[in-house]
Predict the structure.
Amino acid sequence: MDFTFTEEQQAAVEAAKAVFADVAPDGVPSPALTPGAVADDFDRPLWARLAGSDLLSLVLAEEHGGAGLDTVALCLVLREAAKVLARVPLLEHCATAMAVQAHGSPELAAALLPGAGRGTLVLTAAAHGRSGHDPAELAVTARRDEDGWTLDGTQTAVPWAHSADWIAVPAHTGEGEAVLALVPRTAEGLALAEQVSTTGERLAELALDGVRVPPTHLIDTPDAWERLRQLLATGTCALALGLGEGVLTMTSQYTSKREQFGFPVATFQAVAVQAADRYIDLRAMEVTLWQAAWRLDAATGGAGGPLPSSGDVAVAKIWASEGVRRVVQTAQHLHGGFGADTDYPLHRYHAWAKQLELQLGPAAAHEEALGDLLAAHPLA
C-alpha cells in the first residue's frame, strides 16, 4: 500500500502553508474576555488570499474553474488552517460546493460553483438539527407542490450563516426521504437568530417559515445529504488533527524553554511520557482521518469495502473527539498557570478544541453506531 500523497495534494499543502504563515491565532479579542461574538464577520482578507491561491476551488472540477482534487486534499488544507485557528468557513464552503457539484442540477452548479471557486460567493451548511443531537434532516420539512418546494422548521448552530450567501439545508419529505435545499440567506421567510459558539464565533439559529425553493435548487438524489454530512464530519476531524498538532508544537517549545531545578521541564520523565501519549493520540487521529477521507472518495468512485464509508467516518470521529480533548488538557497541564493566561494563545486553542469536540459528539455514540454497522454487515 502507498500512503504517500500525490504531487497535487502536496502542492495544495505548500500553498496552504504560505497563505496561513502570517495568520495570528489571537487576531480577534479573546472569547474569554468578550461577552458576545469576537467579530461580526469572518476573516475576509484571509478569504481573499485563499481565493487568490486557488484553494477555494481546490475540489471543484476544471469546468467550474477548479483543480479537481479530492477529499484528502481538502483535509490537508483544513489541517493547516486549524493550526492557526483560521477564522474562515473553509470546511462548510468547500463541502457544500462538492455536494452541489456531485448531485446538484446543472442550473444550480452554474449559478453557485464559479462564484464559490472565486470566493465571491460564500456557502455554508446547516448540519446540527434542532438541538445539535437530533438528525439534521428531521428538523425541517420539505413539501412539494406544483411550483417547487416549501420548507418549514428550525436548524441550530449554523456556522457563518450571517455572512454566507447560500445555506445548504437538509430536510425530510415525510416519506422517509432526505433532501438537500440550497437557500439564499435573503430568502423570504428565512430568519437568523444570534448564537455564539464556544470559540466566540457567530452562529445562527435558522428558522424557515414557508420558504419557497424552486426545483432546480433542491437536491433529492439518494444519499446526497448523507455524503455531505460525512464530508463535514471528516473535515471536522481534520480540523481537530491540525489543532492538536499546533498545540503539541506549542507545548514542546514551552517545555523545552521552561526550567525547574536548573533543567528544562521537557527532560523530566513525567513530562516526556505525557507528551508521548498525546503524540500517539495524534498519530491515531491522523491515520483514521486519512482512511475516512480515502473511503469517501473511493465510495464515490464505486469502490466498496466490508463496511459502508460511515464506519470509517465513525472511527475517525471516535479518535478525533477524544484525542483533541486529551491533547489540549495535557497541554494546559504542562503549561501550568501560563496556559490560562489570556495574553497567551493556548486558551484559544482550548476553546476551539471544545467546540470541535461538541460538533463531533461523544465517542460513545460513534462506538454504538459502529457496533450497529458491524451487526448489519458481518465481517465474514
